[in-house]
C-alpha cells in the first residue's frame, strides 16, 4: 500500500482494481499541520469505477457523533479562502482604473456571502425569536446571582494559579494527602459550565402531565445553592501519591496570580502577571475515572499518564461504576490542598490496593459530610479543611490577599442572597444560561448578515492600507513609493514587507552568497524542528536584522488593528534551514546537507530550496525595476549557485 504524500507516519488510502475495493488504513488524515477526522467530502485519487466496497479501519477511539457524520454526514462545504496580501494592494495602486474595492467585489468569497444572505437573515431572525421566547423567573435576582457566580469562578481560577505554583505547593505534596484536581489548568477566561439541559415550559408541563418529565432541573430543591456550586466546581477529590520534575515551566498569561512572593516573602506586583519560569512538575494522584474514557490498553495499568486532549473523565470517589487509577497530571491541574493525610499508604500496583485506598478516602469525605449535615450547610462545609493560601501556604502577595478577601465576601453574599434556598434557582439559572447563549448566537448571526450586506474584508483592507502608509510604501496621496514598487513584485515568502524593509535598509548589501541564501530561506521555511543546531556567528547577524525588521512590521500591523501578535509574527521566520541552505550554496552534496538538518524530511528540504530560488528570482526582478542592478546581480548569482544537482532535476531517472 502506498504512503500518502504529506502524511507523516500514516499510510494512505489504497485501491485494489481486481476486487474494486477502496481501503482507508486509519480514520484520520493529515491536513497541513494537524490530523483531522476523515469526512464524506474527502477527495481520493482513484480511477472511475462502478460501485464497490469501501473498508475503513479504526485505530483510535471516537465519539458516536463523529462516526455517524463520517458515514452518513454531508460533504464539507467549499468555502473561499480568499485573502489580501500587501503585494496585491500595491499592484492595484499602481494600475490605473482599478481599486482594491473592485477586487473584493469580484471575489468568489463576496459572491458566496451574498448568495447565503437570505439564509443568514432567516437564521438571525430565528435565533432572535428563540431568545425572546425564553422566560426566566425572577430574572433580575437570578441575573445578580449569576453574576456573583461568574465573579467567584474568576477568583477561584486566579487562586488556583497561585496555589499550584511550585514555590507554594511542593512543600505540601506528601504521599497520602487529600487534594482536589481539575481536568484542565487554571484559565482566567474560563466560562461557567452548563448547569443542565434547557426544557421549554410547554414541554416541561406536558412531560409532568404525562408522568415522564425529567427532573433534571428539580434535583436541588432542598439545597439549591450548594447543588449549583457542585455543578460549577468540576474538580474532584483524590489521594496524592508522588510528584516529579518534568521539564521547564512555561510563562503564565495575564489574569493569573503568582506564588513567587512565597519564597522570599516579598510583594512582587510585576511577578504576579509573569508567572513562574522554573521547572515543571507532574503529580501522581489516585482518582476514580470512567473506564470507558481510558486510553486503549490502560484499563489494567497501575498508572495512566493524562494529557489534556486524552484525559479520562474524573469521577467523585464514591461514584458507582468507576475504576481507581493513579493518574499523572501537570501540577497546574491542582485545584486545592487539604490538611488531611491518609497514613500508611500501601503499594498501589494492584487494582485491589488502589480500590481500598480510594475507599478510605471516600470514608473520610463521608464523615466530614455527615458532620456538616449535623451542624448546618454552607459553601465550605462538608469537605476536609483546606490549607489557607496565606496562613498555611504563606502566599504573601497582595494580589493573593485581595483575591482571598474578595472570595470570602462573594461566598457570604451568595449565602445571603434571596435565591440561595429557592427551589426555582436551578431551573431559572438554566433558562438564563440558555437565553445568554441564544443572545450571543443572535449577535454573531447579525454580524454575519451585516458583513454579507457590505464589502468582504473591508476592515482588513483599511487596516492594511494604514500599514502601507505608516511604513512608507504609499504616500499621503495613495501613490506607490520606490519602496512600494519593490514590495509589489514580491509574492513568495511569508511577508513581502519584511523582505522589502531588509532590501531597502541595506541588509543584503554586504552579505556573502551563502549568507544571502541562508537569510532568504527564513522567508520560505515555517516548520519548527526539535534540537536545532546553534547558528554560526556569520549567520547570527543577518538573523538578528531579520527579526528586527519583522518586529517593526508586526508592531505596525498590531497598531493598525490587524489582530497580529508581534511575537508570533516574528517567530514565523524560522532559522532551522539557514545552515543547510548556506552549505548547499557553498556546493555541498545533498547527502551532506541532510546531515546538517537530520530532523528535516528530504522532500521538505527540496521544496524549501526550490522556493528559495524562486524568491531570489523575484527579488532580482524587483530590484531591477528600481534601478539597483548590482544587488540584483548578486541575487542572480546566488540563484545560479543553488540551482543544481538533484534538487532541481526534472526527473530522478535522468
Largest sheet: 7 strands, mixed
Poorly predicted residue ranges: 1-10, 212-222, 250-256, 258-277
Q: What fraction of residues sit in β-strands?
A: 5-15%
Instruction: Give average pLDDT, whole number.
Output: 80
* Straight-line distance between termini: 26 Å
* Net shape: globular
Helix/strand/pairing class, anyone? alpha+beta
User: Given the structure, what is the number of helices?
Assistant: 24
Which range best describes the helical content: under 10%, 10-25%, 25-40%, 40-55%, 55-70% or over 70%?
Answer: 40-55%
Rg on CA atoms, Å: 31 Å
Strand segment count: 12
Structure report:
The longest helix has 29 residues, at 425-453. The protein has helices at 64-72, 86-94, 100-105, 108-115, 117-133, 139-163, 166-169, 201-210, 224-232, 261-264, 271-274, 351-375, 398-415, 425-453, 458-470, 482-488, 496-504, 513-521, 537-559, 566-571, 578-585, 590-596, 602-625, 629-642, and strands spanning 14-16, 21-24, 28-31, 34-37, 53-56, 177-181, 236-248, 279-289, 303-305, 314-315, 323-330, 334-341. Mean pLDDT is 80; it is low at 1-10, 212-222, 250-256 and 258-277. It contains 24 helices and twelve strands. A hairpin with a 4-residue loop joins strand 1 and strand 2. The strands form three sheets. Strands 6, 7, 8, 9, 10, 11 and 12 form a seven-stranded mixed β-sheet that branches. By secondary structure, the chain is an alpha+beta fold. The radius of gyration is 31 Å and the shape is globular.
Amino acid at each position: 500500500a502506498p504512503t500518502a504524500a504529506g502524511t507523516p507516519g500514516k499510510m494512505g488510502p489504497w485501491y485494489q482494481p481486481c476486487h474494486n475495493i477502496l481501503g482507508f488504513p486509519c480514520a484520520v488524515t493529515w491536513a497541513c499541520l494537524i490530523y483531522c477526522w476523515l469526512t464524506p467530502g474527502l477527495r481520493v485519487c482513484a480511477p472511475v469505477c462502478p460501485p464497490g466496497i469501501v473498508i475503513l479501519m479504526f485505530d483510535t477511539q471516537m465519539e458516536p457523533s463523529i462516526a455517524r457524520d463520517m458515514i452518513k454526514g454531508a460533504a464539507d462545504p467549499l468555502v473561499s479562502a480568499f485573502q489580501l496580501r500587501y503585494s496585491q494592494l500595491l499592484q492595484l495602486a499602481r494600475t490605473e482604473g482599478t481599486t482594491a474595492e473592485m477586487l473584493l467585489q469580484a471575489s468568489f468569497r463576496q459572491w458566496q456571502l451574498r448568495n447565503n444572505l437570505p439564509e443568514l437573515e432567516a437564521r438571525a431572525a430565528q435565533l432572535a425569536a428563540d431568545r425572546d421566547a425564553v422566560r426566566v423567573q425572577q430574572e433580575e435576582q437570578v441575573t445578580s446571582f449569576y453574576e456573583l457566580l461568574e465573579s467567584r469562578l474568576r477568583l477561584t481560577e486566579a487562586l488556583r494559579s497561585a496555589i499550584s505554583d511550585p514555590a507554594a505547593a511542593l512543600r505540601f505534596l506528601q504521599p497520602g494527602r487529600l487534594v482536589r484536581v481539575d481536568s484542565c489548568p487554571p484559565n482566567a477566561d474560563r466560562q461557567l459550565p452548563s448547569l443542565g439541559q434547557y426544557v421549554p415550559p410547554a414541554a416541561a408541563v406536558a412531560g409532568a402531565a404525562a408522568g415522564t418529565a425529567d427532573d433534571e432541573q428539580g434535583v436541588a430543591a432542598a439545597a439549591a445553592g450548594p447543588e449549583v456550586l457542585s455543578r460549577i466546581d468540576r474538580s474532584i477529590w483524590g489521594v496524592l501519591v508522588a510528584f516529579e520534575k518534568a521539564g521547564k515551566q512555561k510563562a503564565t498569561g495575564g489574569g493569573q496570580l503568582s506564588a513567587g512572593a512565597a519564597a522570599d516573602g516579598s510583594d512582587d506586583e510585576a511577578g504576579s502577571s509573569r508567572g513562574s519560569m522554573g521547572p515543571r512538575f507532574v503529580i501522581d494522584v489516585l482518582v476514580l475515572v470512567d473506564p470507558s474514557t481510558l486510553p486503549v490498553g490502560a484499563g489494567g495499568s497501575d498508572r495512566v499518564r493524562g494529557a489534556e486532549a486524552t484525559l479520562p473523565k474524573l469521577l467523585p470517589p464514591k461514584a458507582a461504576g468507576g475504576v481507581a487509577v493513579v493518574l499523572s497530571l501537570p501540577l497546574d491541574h491542582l485545584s486545592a490542598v487539604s490538611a488531611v493525610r491518609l497514613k500508611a499508604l500501601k503499594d498501589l500496583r494492584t487494582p485491589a490496593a488502589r480500590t481500598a485506598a480510594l475507599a478510605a478516602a471516600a470514608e473520610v469525605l463521608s464523615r466530614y459530610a455527615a458532620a456538616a449535615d449535623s451542624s448546618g450547610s454552607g459553601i465550605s462545609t462538608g469537605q476536609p479543611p483546606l490549607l489557607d493560601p496565606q496562613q498555611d501556604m504563606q502566599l504573601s502577595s497582595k494580589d493573593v490577599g485581595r483575591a482571598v478577601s474578595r472570595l470570602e465576601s462573594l461566598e457570604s453574599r451568595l449565602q445571603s442572597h434571596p435565591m440561595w434556598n429557592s427551589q426555582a434557582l436551578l431551573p431559572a439559572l438554566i433558562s438564563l444560561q440558555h437565553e445568554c447563549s441564544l443572545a450571543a448566537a443572535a449577535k454573531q448571526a447579525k454580524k454575519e448578515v451585516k458583513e454579507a450586506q457590505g464589502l468582504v474584508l473591508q476592515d482588513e483592507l483599511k487596516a492594511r492600507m494604514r500599514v502601507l502608509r505608516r511604513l512608507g510604501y504609499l504616500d499621503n496621496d495613495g501613490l506607490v513609493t520606490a519602496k512600494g514598487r519593490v514590495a509589489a513584485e514580491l509574492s513568495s515568502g511569508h511577508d513581502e514587507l519584511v523582505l522589502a524593509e531588509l532590501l531597502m535598509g541595506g541588509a543584503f548589501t554586504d552579505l556573502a552568497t551563502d549568507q544571502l541564501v541562508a537569510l532568504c530561506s527564513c522567508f520560505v521555511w515555517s516548520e519548527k524542528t526539535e534540537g536545532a543546531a546553534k547558528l554560526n556567528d556569520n549567520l547570527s547577524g543577518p538573523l538578528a536584522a531579520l527579526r528586527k525588521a519583522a518586529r517593526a512590521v508586526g508592531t505596525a500591523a498590531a497598531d493598525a488593528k490587524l489582530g497580529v501578535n508581534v511575537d508570533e509574527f516574528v517567530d514565523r521566520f524560522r532559522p532551522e534551514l539557514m545552515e543547510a541552505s548556506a552549505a548547499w550554496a557553498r556546493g555541498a552534496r545533498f547527502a551532506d546537507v541532510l546531515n546538517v538538518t537530520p530532523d528535516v524530511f528530504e522532500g521538505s528540504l527540496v521544496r524549501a530550496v526550490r522556493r528559495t530560488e524562486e524568491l531570489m528570482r523575484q527579488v532580482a526582478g524587483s530590484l531591477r525595476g528600481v534601478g539597483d542592478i548590482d544587488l540584483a546581480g548578486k541575487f542572480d548569482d546566488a540563484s545560479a549557485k543553488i540551482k543544481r544537482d538533484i534538487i532541481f532535476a526534472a526527473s530522478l531517472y535522468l
